[in-house]
Amino acid sequence: MMTLRTALASSLLALGMFVGCGNRAVDERIAALGEEDPNVPVGEFHRPGQPCVLCHGEYLRENPIMSVGGTIYAYPTQTAEQKPLPVKGVKVKLTDSFGDQYEVTTNCAGNFFIEAEKWDPAFPLRAEMEYPVPGALESTKRVVMSTRISRDGSCAGCHAGTRNQGSPGWVTCAEAETEPPFPPQESACPGAPK
Amino acid sequence: MNTRRKVSLLCFGVTLLAAAGCGDLGPAVNEIVAPPFDPGSFRAVSAVLERRCGTLDCHGHMARPLRLYGQYGLRRFEERTSPNVENYDEYYSGGKEPTTLAELEDNYRSILALEPELAAKVFAKTADPEVLSIVRKARLREKHKGGLLWNKGDPGDVCMTNWLTGNTDTTQCEVELGHP
């Protein structure tokens, strides 16, 4: 029969294993994302420009679990203070290593995501997008990512902030501001400047 | 001599010996025989690795072992005044500044310093290239988070093993770079 001492030791061991199952590196990256914007309800418009799969992935399993997710902006920002302009209606087309394709469109926050239960691709992925050309009715322009996505389904895992020696900057439609300019974000969009 | 004095003397002797023994740590650099750093031929090999292994979410990530720098991935940290960079405004991941000579040399060291003694044996042709983790992982003969990059004999594999064995023919590297 199990003695009290053995039971206590087993419980402590189980507790230790439970506590030790986290991944501190990921936990700290998640913590660094900060609090929710109080003006944006949790949902498809929240946390634009942040690495979606960090929370909506296999580790934290926030619902819905995503295979790929990101935010598309109009053009690169020059300073850390400059707020990037999200673009609605950009078609994001991904092709996995078996040639399977999936297409998804950005919402008014520039966000797009693919639920893993709908498409769970085999990495690496080829990514391209087609954005509505400002001022040209029903005209679109195609942009192809120059490298492959090797393993991180979050665009913002690599594409974040201004361009620097560790990041190509936000995912953008154009290389610079265009004329005519991209339309401003819809004011009714959650989180948009009023 | 009482016991306390004996112990003190013994301790002093041991400390002296330990201090003297720590003085010579040997050479700071261990030289191995390996493929020479020839930017002419290595640039093609590096380009293959930059594209297939060195993306920002894999070996182009600061925290991952086998760090690889490159034009489309992680850039080697440089100040604006650095003589290693020609066009600093284009020196960012995906910028127009090609992989610099300093980045090439760091990639060269990164690859060979993984298993230097084995790399020397492969270069001397006294061991099969598959003794090297970098060769096995790309062929998925060993667990690799990034999966299978190429099979034995594929252009990327030949590019890599040619260079490791001292063959400067980079034709297969160009073939590999031509793949979508």
Strand % of chain B is under 5%
The arrangement of helices and strands of chain B along the chain is HHHHHHH
Low-confidence stretches of chain B: none
Give the strand tally of chain B. Answer: 0
Class based on secondary structure composition and strand pairing of chain A: alpha+beta
* CATH top level assignment of the domain at 24-157 in chain A: Mainly Beta
Percent helix range of chain A: 10-25%
Indicate the multimeric state.
heterodimer
Strand order of the largest sheet of chain A: 3-2-5-6
Helix and strand string of chain A, N-terminal first?
HHHEEEEEE
Radius of gyration of chain A over alpha carbons?
A: 20 Å
Rg of chain B: 23 Å
Description:
The complex is a heterodimer of chains A (194) and B (180). Chain A has helices spanning 4-19, 24-31, 52-55, and strands at residues 66-71, 91-95, 101-105, 111-115, 126-132, 140-144. Chain A is 14% helix and 17% strand. The radius of gyration of chain A is 20 Å and the shape is globular. The mean pLDDT of chain A is 92. By secondary structure, chain A is of the alpha+beta class. Chain A contains 3 helices and 6 strands. Chain A has a domain at 24-157: Immunoglobulin-like (Sandwich). Chain B has one domain. The termini of chain B are far apart. Chain B has helices spanning 3-21, 39-52, 101-112, 116-123, 133-138, 155-164, 171-177. The model of chain B has no long low-confidence stretch (mean pLDDT 91). Chain B is built from 7 helices and no strands. In chain B, helix 2 packs parallel to helix 7 (171-177). Classes of the chains: A alpha+beta (194), B mainly alpha (180).
